[in-house]
């Protein structure tokens, strides 16, 4: 846990026997408080020497690696948590081995022989061999350079793979292999320090490429030499004698430390695990038992990165401190706090839980990871990374509403709007580091949790202008309170804990306070209320509201969405949010079709395991989705199209979010992309399978035939619009519909009944198109191309990748 009792104002270094040892002034150890390990820096030979007291041999400790400097994107971030695990140092002859046991297989309730059998069933890892330099006076000195001057994080692997994280590419594939150049790498003695319960080692590593580093010129001064800083923390493990791991329960909403429990009998499933949580123990257990609010022995403390500027600093502090109130529901007063980092303290020091300020070359996610004790699931450190770009996206959302706001402008200032989002954002990411998972049903339960992904709740005033005052929640909700009670309520013994948690969970179920995590929030999901970035009691409410707001924002959109003197091309990214204002609510609406609600029920807890969505709601949702495909809903006003030029020289083209097949603003591709999304929701492989399955047991169910018939009738069967703009959009919608029909008709992984139904509707469409007669030459050509693609499918010659598609516009997260 963080320890602020010692000043760490400045680092001082001094030479000892020709070696450089670094420590912090003001950290003089009290009697009996010598560091459990020391790392010394031999600058002359570029080595790391580790002093190991004999009493530390064969004793386990935690070794974690954090990336201290980034690459400008979310794959390699400043402050990014990396490998972590329990290791021990074993002497073998003239060397010391660093050994890591396999914590994924255990027999915690077995006898010694059972535990040994479980351990020997899986490999352990010897992660380093350290030659002994000196052995005297009860201390072994080893050369640990192979640990601290190596790529312990895996930077080279990420660079080599050309991987990505959060949608941000690390590098172009085939750039070349990067490796550590020892001659250009060293230990930073100023940031290599020793404390009684942790040792901190800071390495500066330069990676060179045999491929010349092509494609990285905009990221590093010299792409042939990429220098990163890695920070190692060696930390004494918590004393587990006073800590009771809390058994994993899928209803609690916590992340967990999972393992194979090989001590279970044949009536189990060998699955074991604990929820991840901090250790909170009341100072006064007797007062706690009486129901009084009691301070914990050690509060959970987070520190603000000094690099966080105003006004973010106070927004982060306020949002983070929302949790202090929540912990009162678990019986603790002053259990959580967000403080400024002490002057001179190293944010990489394992004693400090950090809120880091992260810059990148483009948008990316904020992240709330933590390091845990794999023996128990106890959280021992957190390093939250808050992305600086998110507020630019928030501003785009705000600015898109400016033209519709009237002469006095929006009824909420831009900075107030953005900081309201960042307060909730901070609470969300800290929530992860308290152990909590996402809860994507919260938005449909009165904003019951900060662990949902919020879209700004924008309504219309009586005057028809956008109202931004309730865009984001202003504190935690009912689920947050329930989850913290389940995770952090303290009990004196196991029996009391079992009874207490059962009672809390029963109360939550009775109040219908629900939790559904990431796995079921994707577009293929079956619960309409479980969708990212939606807001509203039901998707019907969300669609009704967002469609009306979207229409006002589109009809009023003009150059007032940017500042005087800014490039008009910036209107591109502002209009993108306006045009797609309803997209997430449409995704939620689609989940009614073939929808099924469910809970993470346990036998005897009273929850309904599954409930098929009422057929009336499924048909109503289908109609609403088809309404959204009407050309009048998708067309972009001509005046808006003429406002948006291509980006000027020197402009960040990554901010040109609406791209198309032509240089001018491409309204047809924009409409086709949204249509592709909506039709894709309806004809999703999992959704179509559910429609077939539900119809097999309910003769009144909405059928796949009915869905496809309605889709084709409302797109290919609709009358041609009067305007050329709407006719062009209609063709885009029809093309998107045909492509998805062809895709699923040829999908080898779809249910046979799904493929059969799709093939039949393709044949029916072909017969319909054979009768088309029109004076519109573009439409006749469009029909001819469609029939060629249908013929290829029916002849078994369709190549889906060869068919042109409308790209779906991917916007940065709001």
List keywords for this structure.
alpha+beta, five-stranded mixed beta sheet, disordered N terminus
Notes on the structure:
- Among the domains are: about 10-235, no CATH class; about 255-390, no CATH class.
- About 30% of the residues lie in helices and about 20% in strands.
- It has 22 helices and 28 strands.
- Helix 11 runs antiparallel to helix 13 (about 585-590), helix 13 (about 585-590) runs parallel beside helix 17 (about 665-680) and helix 19 packs parallel to helix 21 (about 750-770).
- Residues about 1-30 and about 165-175 have low confidence and may be disordered.
Given helix and strand content, the structural type is: alpha+beta
Strand content: 15-25%
Question: Count the strands?
Answer: 28
Number of helices: 22
In brief:
The chain has 814 residues and is α+β, with helices and mostly antiparallel strands. 32% of the residues lie in helices and 19% in strands.
Q: What topology does this entry show?
A:
Layout: E1 12-16, E2 19-23, E3 38-42, E4 47-53, E5 61-67, E6 80-92, E7 95-100, E8 105-106, H1 112-120, E9 125-136, E10 139-143, H2 145-148, H3 155-161, E11 164-165, E12 168-169, E13 178-180, E14 186-187, E15 193-194, E16 198-209, E17 225-236, E18 256-261, E19 271-275, H4 285-289, E20 300-304, H5 312-320, H6 322-328, E21 336-340, E22 353-358, E23 370-373, E24 378-387, H7 390-400, H8 414-433, E25 459-460, E26 466-467, H9 478-488, H10 494-510, H11 539-556, H12 571-579, H13 583-590, E27 596-598, E28 610-612, H14 615-628, H15 631-634, H16 638-643, H17 667-682, H18 685-697, H19 704-715, H20 724-745, H21 752-770, H22 777-794
Parallel strand pairs: 8-18, 20-21, 20-22, 22-24
Antiparallel strand pairs: 1-2, 3-4, 4-10, 5-6, 5-17, 6-7, 7-9, 9-10, 11-12, 13-16, 14-16, 15-16, 16-17, 18-19, 23-24, 25-26, 27-28
Helix pairs in contact: 5-8, 7-8, 7-12, 9-10, 11-13, 13-17, 17-20, 19-20, 19-21, 20-21, 20-22, 21-22
């Amino acid at each position: 846990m963080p320890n602020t009792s010692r000043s760490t104002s400045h680092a001082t270094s001094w030479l000892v026997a020709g070696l450089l040892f670094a420590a912090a002034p003001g950290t003089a150890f009290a009697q009996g408080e010598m560091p459990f390990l020391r790392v010394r820096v031999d600058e002359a030979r570029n080595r790391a020497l580790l002093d190991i007291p004999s009493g530390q041999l064969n004793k386990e400790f935690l070794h974690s690696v954090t990336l201290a400097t980034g690459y400008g994107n979310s794959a390699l971030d400043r402050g990014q948590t990396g490998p972590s695990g329990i290791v021990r140092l074993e002497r073998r002859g003239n060397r010391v081995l660093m050994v890591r046991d396999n914590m994924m297989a255990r027999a915690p309730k077995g006898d010694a022989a059972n535990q040994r059998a479980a351990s020997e069933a899986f490999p352990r890892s010897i992660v380093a061999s350290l030659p002994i330099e000196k052995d005297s006076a009860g201390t072994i000195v080893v050369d640990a350079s192979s640990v601290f001057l190596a790529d312990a994080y895996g930077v080279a692997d990420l660079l080599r793979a050309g991987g990505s994280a959060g949608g941000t590419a690390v590098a172009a594939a085939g750039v070349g292999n990067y490796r550590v150049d020892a001659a250009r790498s060293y230990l930073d003695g100023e940031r290599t320090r020793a404390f009684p319960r942790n040792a901190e080692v800071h390495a500066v590593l330069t990676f060179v490429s045999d491929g010349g580093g092509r494609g990285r010129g905009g990221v590093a001064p010299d792409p042939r030499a990429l220098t990163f800083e890695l920070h190692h923390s060696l930390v004494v493990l918590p004393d587990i004698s006073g800590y009771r791991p809390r058994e994993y329960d899928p209803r609690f909403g916590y992340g967990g430390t999972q393992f194979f429990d090989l001590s279970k009998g044949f009536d189990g499933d060998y699955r074991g695990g604990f929820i991840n949580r901090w250790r909170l123990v009341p100072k006064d257990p007797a007062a706690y038992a009486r129901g009084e609010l009691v301070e914990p022995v050690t509060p959970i403390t987070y520190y603000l990165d000094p690099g966080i500027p105003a006004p973010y600093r106070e927004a982060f502090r306020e949002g983070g401190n929302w949790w202090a109130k929540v912990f009162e529901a678990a019986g603790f007063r002053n259990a959580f706090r967000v403080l400024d980092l002490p002057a001179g303290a190293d944010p990489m020091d394992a004693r400090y839980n950090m809120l880091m300020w992260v810059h990148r070359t483009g948008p990316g996610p904020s992240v709330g990871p933590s390091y845990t004790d794999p023996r128990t699931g106890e959280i021992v450190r957190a390093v939250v990374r808050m992305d600086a770009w998110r507020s630019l996206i928030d501003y785009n959302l705000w600015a898109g509403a400016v033209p519709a706001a009237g002469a006095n402008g929006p009824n909420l200032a831009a900075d107030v709007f953005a900081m309201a989002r960042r307060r909730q954002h901070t609470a969300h990411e800290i929530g992860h580091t308290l152990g909590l998972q996402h809860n994507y049903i919260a938005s449909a339960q009165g904003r019951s949790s900060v662990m949902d992904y919020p879209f700004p709740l924008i309504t219309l005033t009586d005057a028809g202008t956008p109202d931004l005052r309730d865009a984001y929640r202003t504190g935690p909700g009912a689920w947050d309170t329930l989850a913290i009670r389940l995770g952090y309520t303290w009990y004196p013994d196991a029996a009391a804990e079992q009874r207490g948690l059962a009672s809390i969970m029963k109360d939550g179920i009775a109040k219908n306070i629900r939790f559904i995590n990431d796995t079921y929030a994707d577009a293929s999901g079956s619960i309409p209320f479980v969708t990212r970035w939606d807001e509203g009691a039901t998707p019907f409410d969300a669609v009704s509201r967002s469609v009306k707001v979207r229409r006002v924002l589109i009809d009023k959109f003009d150059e007032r969405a940017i500042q005087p003197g800014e490039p008009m091309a910036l209107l591109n990214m502002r209009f993108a949010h306006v045009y797609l204002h309803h997209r997430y609510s449409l995704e939620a609406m689609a989940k009614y079709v073939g929808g099924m609600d469910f809970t993470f029920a346990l036998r005897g807890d009273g929850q309904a395991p599954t409930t098929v969505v009422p057929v009336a709601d499924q048909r109503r949702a289908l109609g609403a989705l088809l309404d959204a495909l009407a050309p009048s809903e998708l067309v972009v006003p001509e005046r808006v199209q003429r406002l948006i030029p291509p980006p000027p020289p020197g402009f960040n083209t990554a901010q040109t979010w609406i791209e198309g097949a032509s240089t001018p603003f491409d309204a047809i591709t924009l409409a086709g992309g949204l249509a592709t999304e909506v039709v894709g929701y309806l004809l999703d492989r999992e959704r179509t399978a559910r429609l077939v399955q539900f119809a097999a047991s309910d003769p009144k169910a909405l059928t796949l035939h009915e869905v496809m018939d309605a889709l084709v009738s409302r797109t290919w069967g609709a009358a041609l619009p009067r305007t050329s703009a709407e006719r062009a959009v209609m063709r885009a919608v029809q093309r998107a519909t045909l492509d998805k029909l062809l895709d699923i008709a040829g999908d080898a992984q779809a249910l046979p009944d799904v493929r059969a139904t799709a093939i039949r509707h393709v044949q029916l469409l072909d017969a319909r198109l054979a009768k088309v007669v029109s004076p519109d030459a573009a439409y006749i050509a469009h029909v001819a191309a469609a029939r060629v693609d249908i013929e290829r499918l029916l002849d078994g010659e369709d190549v889906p990748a060869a068919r042109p598609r409308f790209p779906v516009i991917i916007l940065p997260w709001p």
